């Protein structure tokens, strides 16, 4: 089984990289990009039967820094 | 007096840090990240700068989960002295021994230069050789040194006199110009600047020696 973990900076946390991307898009002529937030996706290849609770534990302990990041888990 | 310096794959200031301790009279042992125990009778642990584990995932995140860091956390919880410079500060934040987080520099660039710092408190085992308000020149070299704290944390750090050093001229966007902070019990210090790179005359300045000297004062009394 696979799990996909999406990690994003929490709302209100400044994202200078996203802001740089937004600026670059504007330079390329893409108007109307009001904001860019950059995150990451982590794909996990897991033994069958791994629980969502266990993936959540992985997020809390290592994959996300919950001081500044939030995460969502997609099991497939 | 005994110091232990932790070495991760990708640490690159470990020997500089060891030298900083030695100059102040410490006997230093280097400890590999896969070790599970600290040397017996260690008085202080140093977590060096560098790019532990290539900064993969987040700066310091993987190092913070290494076997030796479990021992470091236990050591700190028992009241032991721990300091971390640069990547060491990032590791200490990731272990939870220090609050807050180090984010990408606001200017997005790696900043490498001499930096003036203000000593914000002399009331700690790492800063008692200075006076509050002293201005010292210490190198910085980092890409992710933007210390981020919310309003609550900032007022707690200031209210409890836990800001050790601040920048004079903020190089990276850090909240409240903060360059280094102390734990609640004041025995854990994390800072982005590199005092070990300003600890002998050949470095062009010795303003960083005070961090190591402060420790010797405290440990001599212990």
UniProtKB/TrEMBL annotation, chain A:
Q: Which domain of life is it from?
A: Bacteria
Give a yes or no for keyword Transport in this entry: no
Q: Which Pfam families has this protein been placed in?
A: PurS (PF02700)
Coiled coil, from the record: none
Q: What class of enzyme is it?
A: ligase
Q: Where in the cell is it found?
A: Cytoplasm
Q: Which SUPFAM superfamilies match?
A: PurS-like
Q: In which pathway does it act?
A: Purine metabolism; IMP biosynthesis via de novo pathway; 5-amino-1-(5-phospho-D-ribosyl)imidazole from N(2)-formyl-N(1)-(5-phospho-D-ribosyl)glycinamide: step 1/2
Query: GO:BP terms for this protein?
Result: 'de novo' IMP biosynthetic process
Statement: the UniProt record of this protein carries the keyword Cell membrane: no
**EC no.?**
6.3.5.3
Q: Supply one GO molecular-function term.
A: ATP binding
**Which keywords has UniProt assigned to this entry?**
ATP-binding, Cytoplasm, Ligase, Nucleotide-binding, Purine biosynthesis
Give me the Gene Ontology terms describing cellular component. cytoplasm
Its recorded reaction(s) are:
N(2)-formyl-N(1)-(5-phospho-beta-D-ribosyl)glycinamide + L-glutamine + ATP + H2O = 2-formamido-N(1)-(5-O-phospho-beta-D-ribosyl)acetamidine + L-glutamate + ADP + phosphate + H(+)
Family note? Belongs to the PurS family.
Q: How does it assemble?
A: Part of the FGAM synthase complex composed of 1 PurL, 1 PurQ and 2 PurS subunits.
So what does this one do? Part of the phosphoribosylformylglycinamidine synthase complex involved in the purines biosynthetic pathway. Catalyzes the ATP-dependent conversion of formylglycinamide ribonucleotide (FGAR) and glutamine to yield formylglycinamidine ribonucleotide (FGAM) and glutamate. The FGAM synthase complex is composed of three subunits. PurQ produces an ammonia molecule by converting glutamine to glutamate. PurL transfers the ammonia molecule to FGAR to form FGAM in an ATP-dependent manner.
Annotated protein name in UniProt: Phosphoribosylformylglycinamidine synthase subunit PurS
The lineage, from the top, is:
Bacteria, Pseudomonadati, Pseudomonadota, Alphaproteobacteria, Rhodobacterales
Gene of this entry: purS
Automatic annotation (TrEMBL), chain B:
Tell me which GO cellular component terms the UniProt record holds: cytoplasm
Enzymatic reactions: N(2)-formyl-N(1)-(5-phospho-beta-D-ribosyl)glycinamide + L-glutamine + ATP + H2O = 2-formamido-N(1)-(5-O-phospho-beta-D-ribosyl)acetamidine + L-glutamate + ADP + phosphate + H(+); L-glutamine + H2O = L-glutamate + NH4(+)
Signal peptide segment: none
Question: Which Pfam families does this entry report, sorted A to Z?
Answer: GATase_5
**Source domain of life:** Bacteria
Q: Which InterPro entries match?
A: Class_I_gatase-like, PRibForGlyAmidine_synth_PurQ
Looking up PROSITE patterns in the UniProt record yields: GATASE_TYPE_1
State its Enzyme Commission number(s). 6.3.5.3, 3.5.1.2
Q: In which pathway does it act?
A: Purine metabolism; IMP biosynthesis via de novo pathway; 5-amino-1-(5-phospho-D-ribosyl)imidazole from N(2)-formyl-N(1)-(5-phospho-D-ribosyl)glycinamide: step 1/2
A GO term for molecular function? glutaminase activity
Listed under GO biological process in this entry are:
'de novo' IMP biosynthetic process
Q: Which catalytic residues are annotated?
A: 86 (nucleophile), 194, 196
Q: Which SMART domains has this protein been placed in?
A: GATase_5
Compartments it resides in: Cytoplasm
Record keywords, A-Z: ATP-binding, Cytoplasm, Glutamine amidotransferase, Hydrolase, Ligase, Nucleotide-binding, Purine biosynthesis
- Its job: Part of the phosphoribosylformylglycinamidine synthase complex involved in the purines biosynthetic pathway. Catalyzes the ATP-dependent conversion of formylglycinamide ribonucleotide (FGAR) and glutamine to yield formylglycinamidine ribonucleotide (FGAM) and glutamate. The FGAM synthase complex is composed of three subunits. PurQ produces an ammonia molecule by converting glutamine to glutamate. PurL transfers the ammonia molecule to FGAR to form FGAM in an ATP-dependent manner.
Outline the subunit composition: Part of the FGAM synthase complex composed of 1 PurL, 1 PurQ and 2 PurS subunits.
- The molecule here is called Phosphoribosylformylglycinamidine synthase subunit PurQ
């Amino acid at each position: 089984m696979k799990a996909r973990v999406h990690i994003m900076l929490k709302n209100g946390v400044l994202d200078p990289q996203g802001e740089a991307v937004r600026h670059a898009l504007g330079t390329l002529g893409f108007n109307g990009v009001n904001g860019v937030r950059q995150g990451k996706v982590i794909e996990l290849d897991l033994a069958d039967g791994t629980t969502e609770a266990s993936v959540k534990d992985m997020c809390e302990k290592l994959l996300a820094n919950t001081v500044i990041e939030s995460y969502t888990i997609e099991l497939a | 007096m005994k110091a232990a310096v932790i070495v991760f794959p990708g640490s690159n200031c470990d020997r500089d840090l060891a030298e900083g301790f030695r100059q102040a009279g410490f006997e230093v042992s280097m400890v590999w990240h896969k070790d599970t125990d600290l040397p017996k009778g260690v008085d202080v642990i140093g977590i060096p700068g560098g790019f532990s584990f290539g900064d993969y995932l987040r700066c310091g995140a993987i190092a913070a989960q290494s076997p030796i860091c479990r021992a470091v956390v236990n050591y700190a919880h028992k009241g032991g002295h721990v300091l971390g410079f640069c990547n060491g500060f990032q590791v200490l934040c990731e272990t939870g021994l220090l609050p807050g987080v180090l984010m990408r520099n606001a200017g997005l660039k790696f900043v490498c230069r001499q930096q003036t710092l203000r000593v914000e408190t002399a009331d700690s085992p790492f800063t008692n050789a200075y006076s509050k308000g002293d201005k010292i020149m210490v190198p910085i070299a980092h890409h992710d040194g933007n210390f981020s704290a919310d309003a609550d944390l900032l007022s707690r750090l200031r209210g409890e006199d836990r800001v050790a050093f601040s920048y004079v001229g903020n190089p990276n966007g850090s909240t409240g110009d903060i360059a280094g902070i102390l734990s609640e019990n004041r025995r854990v210090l994390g800072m982005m600047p590199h005092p070990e790179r300003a600890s002998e005359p050949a470095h062009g300045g010795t303003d960083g020696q005070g961090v190591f000297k402060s420790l010797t004062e405290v440990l001599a009394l212990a």
